[in-house]
Amino acid sequence: MQNLIEKIKKLLGLSKKTAGFTLIELLVVIGILGVLAAALVATIDPFEQLKKGNDSNVKNTAVEYANGNVRYYTTHTAFPWDSTASGGGGCNGGVAPSGQTNLANGSTSTGMLSCVQALISDNELKPGFITATSQLAKIYANFTAGTKVLTVCFQPDSKSQQNDANTKYNSDGTTNATKTCTSTATNNGCFWCTQ
User: Fold this and answer.
1) I need a labelling partner for 60 at 20 to 30 A (CA). Which of 33, 66, 104, 107 fits?
2) What pLDDT band is residue 64 in, cutting at 50, 70 and 90?
3) What are phi and psi of 160, to 5 degrees?
4) Angle at 147 between CA 137 and CA 81, to 5 degrees
5) How far apart are CA 124 and CA 137, in angstroms?
6) Burial (0-12, 13-18, 19+ Cβ within 10 Å), 29
7) pTM for this model (two decimals)
8) Is the dihedral angle over the CA atoms 32, 33, 34, 38 positive or is it negative?
9) How far apart are CA 155 and CA 170, in angstroms?
């Protein structure tokens, strides 16, 4: 019986001499894992992922600002920059936004930032909205008085958002068929917009 157990151990390779891996085997496995990890990082491109995340934040902020203005108009029948006599808040000195001015322009009492403050004061935006100045600085608003259309745009940093079919506008919301997303000029036809 003892002899049979020894034969089975030998057949299965279970002997006392095999008690682990050699240093060479471990180094080879670590090297292979390192190559796979490097290939994975190169494929994912972490900087592009960060840019996509930032673009998502700015896009959400732009959409929420546009929605806040729609809600304000619904309750006041005027926009925040309209005069107080007509139901508005008189922010930005009573001047409607043009496509060349970003939302972080001015202070909470003057400029476009005062319109953000007016929406916060009217509970159309959350109070923390005013502290998102890095996102607000990337957002441009343009109001067309005749049609009462507010267009809110931002210039994306990520390649995927730049290649999006809806990224084809100037900062004022007008369509630009010859967009150039390679430069960071304020009006290069590489803006994503919402109305």
Assistant:
1) 107
2) very high
3) -65, -40
4) 45
5) 20
6) exposed
7) 0.74
8) positive
9) 9
